[in-house]
Write a structure and sequence with these properties.
It is a single chain. The chain has about 220 residues and is of the alpha/beta class. Helix content is about 40%, strand content about 15%. It is globular, with a radius of gyration of 18 Å.
Length: about 220
């Protein structure tokens, strides 16, 4: 992380100024070294403006291992309906989340679990955007943690494996999660479950760090 650089120190001061809840200033401090949080959300759809989160899964990564005892699994009650097409994907029906808390009420638990650790995920930008719809008005800032995209790491790794004549900006590399799991030799897990997908992202991250020489 670059939080120790003058630029990031200025950025941190700006975030502290915007922070509405000073008790969450710990989010702006670097997390423990060699520690990350893999994150995934299941949602009612793919529109970051109108769809809603129905579950959140997160696991802690320390060095080269997933800390099995430190995971977060939250069901979220959306304000609107749960469309049938999304139920077919994540298998969470309206009645399954009817007794859950709304996302805003779950933010303290989520933020304290993450702390200042960098976030890891597969197409993480979408998950962060979905969460920030609730985080930003409640906290005054969006999730400030650095984000590490597993599909980008996988692209870099596969790009290095290509012969020189194929190494160009539009190199055709299959970034589907099933392909990534297969090519990295990871144990398959049932997809579209927030915790399972967070664990898969964590396993891919650990493997790719090693393959890319970052372990």
């Amino acid at each position: 992380m670059a939080l120790h650089s003058p630029w990031s120190a200025a950025r941190r001061r700006w975030l502290q100024h915007r922070l509405r809840r000073p008790e969450y200033a710990f989010l702006l401090e670097p997390g423990p070294p060699d520690e990350w949080v893999a994150l995934d959300c299941e949602t009612t759809g793919l529109n970051v403006r109108t769809d809603e989160v129905v579950s959140i899964g997160a696991v802690r990564v320390c060095g080269q291992r997933i800390v099995a005892s430190e995971r977060l699994e939250l069901l979220v009650r959306p304000a609107g309906p749960v469309p049938a097409q999304s139920v077919r994907i994540h298998r969470l029906r309206a009645q399954d989340v009817a007794q859950a808390l709304p996302l805003e009420a779950l933010l303290p638990q989520l933020l304290r679990f993450i702390g200042g650790c960098p976030l890891v995920g597969y197409y993480l930008e979408f998950d962060v955007a979905m969460l920030n719809r609730a985080v930003r008005p409640w906290l005054g800032i969006g999730l400030p943690q650095p984000c590490i995209e597993v599909s980008a790491l996988y692209y870099d790794y596969q790009f290095r494996q290509l012969p020189p004549y194929q190494q160009h900006a539009n190199a055709d590399i299959d970034l589907r999660l099933a392909t990534l799991v297969r090519e990295l030799g990871l144990p398959p897990r049932e997809a579209h479950d927030a915790v399972n997908d967070a664990v898969t992202a964590a396993l891919a991250f650990i493997k790719l760090r090693r393959l890319l020489g970052g372990a």
